[in-house]
Amino acid sequence: MRTATEAQPTQGSTLPTAPCSVVWSKGHAYVLEGFRARWVGVDDRGRPHALSGADLQRRGWTRTRCA
Predict the structure, then answer these.
(1) CB 61, CB 25: distance < 8 Å
(2) Does residue 12 sit within a domain?
(3) C-alpha separations of 48 from 12, 39, 43 in Å
(4) pLDDT tens digits, residue range 31-55?
(5) Is residue 67 part of a domain?
(6) CB proximity list for 57: less than 8 A, separation 6 or greater
(7) DSSP secondary-structure letter at 59?
(8) Using CA of residue 59, residue 38, residue 48, residue 3, what is the dihedral sign?
(9) In a domain, 4, yes or no
(10) How many whole angstroms separate alpha carbon 45 and alpha carbon 42?
(11) Residue 37 falls within a domain, yes or no?
(12) Which domain of life is it from (predicted)?
């Protein structure tokens, strides 16, 4: 459950396009790999995880970490 002070996922906004941009989704940081145009991070077990921009939009994202 989110509290009123937590950042809400960005809806309808466009993802950053600069290489090495960082966004947060479901408590995990994702970094934009410029040469492949994909967002990479790690899952709950520390394994590499890559998402497309469309995947990240569906999951919800913010520019700041949500606890």
Answers:
(1) yes
(2) no
(3) 27, 11, 7
(4) 999 777 899 999 999 999 999 999 9
(5) no
(6) 15
(7) H
(8) negative
(9) no
(10) 7
(11) yes
(12) Bacteria
Q: Which residue has the tokens 């913010």?
A: 62
Asked if 57 and 15 touch (Cβ cutoff 8 Å), the reply is yes
Sheet holding 48-51, edge to edge: 22-25, 28-33, 38-42, 48-51
End-to-end CA distance of the chain: 10
Give the separation between CA 8 and CA 33, rounded to whole angstroms: 24
Domain assignment of residue 55, given as a range = 22-59
**Beta-strand (E) ranges in 6-57?**
22-25, 28-33, 38-42, 48-51
Tens digit of each residue's pLDDT (9 = 90 or more) over 8-22: 455 558 899 888 999
pTM of the predicted structure, to 2 decimals: 0.75
